[in-house]
Amino acid sequence: MPVADSLITWIHLLSASIWVGGSIFIGIVLVPMLKTLANGAAERTILMIKIGRRFNRIALPALIVLVATGVYKAQLFLASPNTLLDSNYGIVLVIKIIVVASMIVLFGIHVKISGSGNEQLLANNNSNSNIMKLRTRIIWLGRIIVGQSIAILLFAAILETGF
Predict the structure, then answer these.
(1) What are 75-97's pLDDT values in tens digits?
(2) Rg, the chain, Cα only
(3) What 3-state class would DSSP assign to 160?
(4) How confident is the model at residue 147 (pLDDT cuts 50, 70, 90)?
(5) DSSP 124
(6) 87 backbone dihedrals φ, ψ, rounded to 5°
(7) Number of domains making up the chain
(8) Is the pLDDT of residue 14 over 90?
(9) What average pLDDT does the segment 36-59 reach?
(10) Do 72 and 138 meet the contact criterion of CB atoms below 8 Å apart?
């Protein structure tokens, strides 16, 4: 099934491009631009939340597809569960799975913090210290998730070379 496997790899790479590329774009290009587009921290944070929510419409399905195709691809290389800890490939895969799982947990927290309830609080002119705390949490979670995503790409490259 070389054609099917190639299509699955392509879908996996496309999903990774959406997830990681979009996240990096938001962090490196869009968030810094918000300083010139919004008046004050509350407005910037509301825009960040709205943009993040919009991005999640494609990012979340991409992440689900990424995990599903990753599981499929991993099972092709692993003859048995023992291979996970008895080979370099398996050990790198276990590390990648742990990073993916922790990233998914942090992403869930990020989505919860960026929920419409907090957006409403910001719109009602909440205190500046609350705005800054919320903004700081959103930014740091985003940075950690992007860092994890980049590390996952590194693990994928290591696995692809047959390590």
Answers:
(1) 877 767 777 788 888 889 999 99
(2) 19
(3) helix
(4) very high
(5) T
(6) -140, 155
(7) 1
(8) yes
(9) 86
(10) no
Q: How far apart are CA 28 and CA 135, in angstroms?
A: 16
pLDDT at res. 141: 92
For residue 132, name the pLDDT band (cuts at 50, 70, 90): confident
The beta-carbon contacts of 95-102 under 8 Å, at least 24 apart in sequence, are: 95/155, 96/152, 96/155, 96/156, 96/159, 99/148, 99/151, 99/152, 99/155, 100/67, 100/70, 100/148, 100/152, 102/148
Handedness of CA 13, 19, 22, 27 (dihedral sign): negative
Q: Give the pair of three-digit tokens for residue 150.
A: 């980049």
Q: Give me the amino acid identity at 53.
A: R
Tokens of 117: 């309830």
What is the domain extent for residue 144?
2-160
Distance CA 19, CA 62 (A): 6
- Kindly list the distances between the CA atom of residue 6 and the CA atoms of 2, 18, 131, in Å, as whole numbers in the listed order: 6, 18, 47
pTM score: 0.84
Instruction: Please tell me the distance from the alpha carbon of residue 106 to that of residue 86, in angstroms, as a whole number.
Output: 30
Q: How far is it, in rounded angstroms, from Cα 103 to Cα 147?
A: 9
What percentage of the chain has pLDDT greater than the value 70?
Answer: 91
